[in-house]
């Protein structure tokens, strides 16, 4: 098991969450959840999210659209009447 150690004295008390860990590793756009979600809902959201950022139906992805794509997908879930506990956990973060 590897544990990341924060060597910056000014940040010793700062927690490193999974999204923050991805940012530290260089990932610019991270979609994560604020609480545990079912695999079924996560899979549905991920499918719609990736369809939304796919460029012109090609295999390449427009990652700059990530926050907008999540907003669109969550908005669609809201309009469909999906309970807020099932869409409210998903967040986008970037450094």
Output the structural class.
Answer: mainly alpha
Mean pLDDT: 84
Major beta sheet summary: 2 strands, antiparallel
What's the number of domains?
Answer: 1
Widest beta sheet: strand line-up: 1-2
Spans of at least 5 consecutive residues whose pLDDT stays below 50 are none
**What is the CA-CA span between the terminal residues?**
26 Å
Strand content: 5-15%
Oligomer: single chain
How would you describe the shape? Answer: globular
> How would you spell out the order of helices and strands?
HEHHHE
How many beta strands in the DSSP annotation? Answer: 2
| Helical proportion, percent range | 40-55%
Cα gyration radius (Å): 16 Å
Number of helices: 4
Organism: Penicillium cosmopolitanum
Protein name: CHAT domain-containing protein
Domain CHAT: 12-93
InterPro entries: CHAT_dom (IPR024983)
